[in-house]
Protein backbone atom coordinates (compact mmCIF):
# COMPACT_ATOMS: atom_id res chain seq x y z
CA UNK A 1 0.00 0.00 0.00
CA UNK A 2 2.71 2.49 0.96
CA UNK A 3 5.52 2.73 -1.51
CA UNK A 4 9.01 3.34 -0.39
CA UNK A 5 10.43 6.61 -1.63
CA UNK A 6 13.65 6.45 -3.53
CA UNK A 7 16.48 8.78 -2.56
CA UNK A 8 16.71 11.91 -4.65
CA UNK A 9 20.14 12.68 -6.03
CA UNK A 10 21.16 16.19 -5.06
CA UNK A 11 24.24 16.26 -7.23
CA UNK A 12 22.49 18.53 -9.73
CA UNK A 13 22.29 21.25 -7.06
CA UNK A 14 26.03 21.13 -6.49
CA UNK A 15 26.66 21.28 -10.21
CA UNK A 16 24.40 24.29 -10.69
CA UNK A 17 27.19 26.64 -9.61
CA UNK A 18 29.28 25.59 -12.59
CA UNK A 19 26.72 26.85 -15.11
CA UNK A 20 26.35 30.43 -13.96
CA UNK A 21 26.35 32.90 -16.76
CA UNK A 22 29.10 35.46 -17.13
CA UNK A 23 26.79 37.86 -18.99
CA UNK A 24 26.00 40.93 -16.93
CA UNK A 25 22.55 42.48 -17.17
CA UNK A 26 22.28 45.93 -18.71
CA UNK A 27 22.58 48.85 -16.29
CA UNK A 28 19.38 50.37 -14.95
CA UNK A 29 18.23 53.60 -16.48
CA UNK A 30 18.69 56.61 -14.25
CA UNK A 31 15.56 58.47 -13.23
CA UNK A 32 15.14 61.88 -14.76
CA UNK A 33 14.75 65.02 -12.67
CA UNK A 34 11.04 65.10 -13.49
CA UNK A 35 10.57 61.53 -12.27
CA UNK A 36 12.41 62.25 -9.04
CA UNK A 37 10.36 65.41 -8.47
CA UNK A 38 7.13 63.51 -9.18
CA UNK A 39 8.00 60.75 -6.75
CA UNK A 40 8.95 63.29 -4.10
CA UNK A 41 5.71 65.22 -4.54
CA UNK A 42 3.68 62.02 -4.43
CA UNK A 43 5.41 60.95 -1.22
CA UNK A 44 4.87 64.36 0.36
CA UNK A 45 1.20 64.27 -0.63
CA UNK A 46 0.70 60.89 1.00
CA UNK A 47 2.51 61.96 4.18
CA UNK A 48 0.55 65.24 4.31
CA UNK A 49 -2.70 63.31 3.94
CA UNK A 50 -1.81 60.99 6.81
CA UNK A 51 -0.76 63.86 9.05
CA UNK A 52 -3.89 65.83 8.17
CA UNK A 53 -6.14 62.89 8.93
CA UNK A 54 -4.46 62.51 12.31
CA UNK A 55 -4.82 66.21 13.09
CA UNK A 56 -8.51 66.25 12.18
CA UNK A 57 -9.25 62.83 13.65
CA UNK A 58 -7.62 63.12 17.06
CA UNK A 59 -10.08 65.67 18.52
CA UNK A 60 -13.00 63.57 17.35
CA UNK A 61 -11.57 60.45 18.95
CA UNK A 62 -10.83 61.96 22.36
CA UNK A 63 -13.44 60.89 24.92
CA UNK A 64 -12.54 63.30 27.72
CA UNK A 65 -14.45 66.22 26.23
CA UNK A 66 -18.02 66.62 27.39
CA UNK A 67 -20.54 68.78 25.56
CA UNK A 68 -20.94 72.26 27.07
CA UNK A 69 -24.72 72.14 26.90
CA UNK A 70 -27.07 69.23 26.56
CA UNK A 71 -29.48 69.58 23.72
CA UNK A 72 -33.14 69.91 24.51
CA UNK A 73 -35.97 70.30 22.15
CA UNK A 74 -38.03 73.47 22.18
CA UNK A 75 -41.17 71.48 22.89
CA UNK A 76 -39.82 70.37 26.27
CA UNK A 77 -39.03 73.91 27.42
CA UNK A 78 -42.64 74.88 28.15
CA UNK A 79 -43.28 72.03 30.56
Structural class: mainly alpha
Order of helices and strands: HH
Q: Uncertain segments of ≥5 residues (pLDDT<50)?
A: none
Distance between the termini: 89 Å
Number of strand elements: 0
> pLDDT average, as an integer?
77
Main beta sheet strand tally, sense and closure: none
**Global morphology:** elongated
> Which strand-content bin applies to the residues?
under 5%
Keywords: Membrane, Transmembrane, Transmembrane helix
Transmembrane segments: 36-56
Structure, explained:
0% of the residues are buried. It contains two helices and no strands. It has 79 residues and is mainly α. The N and C termini lie far apart (89 Å). The mean pLDDT is 77.
Compose a concise summary of this entry.
The protein is mainly alpha-helical.
Topology, element by element:
Blueprint lengths: L10 H5 L17 H29 L18
Keywords, please?
single chain, mainly alpha, transmembrane, 2 helices, transmembrane helix, 79 residues, elongated, membrane, 43% helix
Amino acid sequence: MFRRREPVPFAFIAEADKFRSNVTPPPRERATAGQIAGRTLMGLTVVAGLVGSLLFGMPAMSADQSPAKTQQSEASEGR
